[in-house]
Amino acid sequence: MRIGIELGATDCCIARIDSDLHPSLVPDQNDAEAFHTPSVVHVFANGAVVGTLAEQLLECDPGAPAVRGVSQRWGETEPVQTDENGDKWYAEGIAALLLKKLRIDVESQDSSSMEGAVIAVPAGLGDSQRQAALSACALADIPVYGLIEEPVATALHYGVAAGAGRETVLIWDLGGSSVDVTLLASDASGLRPLRTGGLRDKGGRKIDEHIGAIILAQFQRALGSPLVKGARSQIELQRASAEIKHELFAPDCSAVRRPVMLGGVVVEVEVALSEVLPVLKGLLDEVAASSEQCLKDAGVAKKDLAKVLLAGGTALVPAVQARAREIFPDAQVLCREPDRAVACGAALHAAQLGPGASVMALSSELKGLTGYAVGIRTLDAATERTGVDTLIKKNMLLPARAQKTYYTTRRRQERLVLDCVQVSESGEATASLGHVVVGPLQAERSNHPIEVTAVYREDGTVKLVAYDGQTGAEFEEVFGGDRQGVTQRLATQRVLVRGIVVNGVIA
Fold first, then answer.
1. Which class would CATH give 164-335?
2. Does domain 2-158+341-352 have CATH number 3.30.420.40?
3. Shortest CA distance to 377 belongs to which of 415, 433, 450, 460?
4. pLDDT score, position 359
5. Mean pLDDT of the region 13-18
6. pLDDT of 330 above 70
7. 10 Å Cβ neighbour count for 405?
8. How is residue 28 annotated by DSSP?
9. Can you give the pLDDT at residue 405?
10. Distance between CA atoms of 344 and 164, rounded to whole angstroms?
11. pTM, whole model, 2 decimals?
12. Of 371, 1, 311, 320, residue with least CA distance to 176
């Protein structure tokens, strides 16, 4: 069984591939109608509750500590929660509890073993964040085929395939916590993001907050004074606002009228669609501006855009689709199950990896994938232009190794300086990892060979070794290191994650 996982800041979901290679979301083991797990985790002395159970706990005990949207905290070096036993939980450990819950859901639905997963991550994540995602999977004992960027997963869900023809597509991912805009190219070499942009903290929750303000104003009019908000009433307000939003944006709905209880007080409220549309319009104005900036930066004209693909729960709102068609009249605007696009696209990629992909499973030593490409900065003697020679590609299984021979460029060259660099998707150097100085050399002639070996190791370091075959001398350097004690931290988190019961299930 191959699966795709989306670890969103608001919700998580998991998709599997059936025998007909069709992706479908896996429901909660306790609720066949629930396909999204709220990204909420509460750790207590003897276990943890995750998702809907954690939200229900918070309604009963609003003061209980909980971690929300942990995927936004990948790469942080400080703990995100300390439990009742005094144990410190870091982002990788909390994310692993979410993943354990998702794994329990899958195993309750399917008796076949999990071969491996593809994890969808936001475009443009740094190395430490990508490694944190992989580490969380390792802590949850989920074998990983690889990572896929969310816009690429969305494109796969919509049937955009590499090699099917050259086209440029724009992706709007309208989630609860943020909006991501990505310009993506498809050609014979694959699917690759060209430009990314977006809005932080301006997703569907902003609409919820506006509806919440309308509800509170009506409570004040009914009671004659402002409602005294506590932790419990705040949770009740958030839930009521989200429910009203979903009803309000249904086709042919102009207003929602219903009783709402906050802090033990019930008031019948009415929210009109006309009161909410200005907020949505403001959000879409910013999305439009971000989209046009991406196109401008990439040098792509609107008329050359083939498709606009919609993802995220807010994309289900008809006004969103209408606005996309208005802005891009020459493009095909597609909105097909946008709330499951990322997870299903990741599952499709897992199916693409083939039977041999299971060898990429993470080991107990927390194996991962290369977080970035590694290369050597080069100089073209004829043009005197610098370039980058990529040795190790991004997303290769650790440890990754590559070897190549380089040559001196002049007679009696005393040394050769190798600049080891990180390489971007476009093949450009983004940062220097460090240098290896090869010498003194005994090179009477030019084109003296130096054999270079690059190793991207399991601890995240890069080792560069240069060998002079004429003298037998080796020169090496190790770049990186255990940043902020990551290895020890993950070892501690592994013990905690393996010893905890999630939602009452031992896994």
1. alpha beta
2. yes
3. 433
4. 35
5. 89
6. yes
7. 10
8. B
9. 93
10. 20
11. 0.74
12. 311
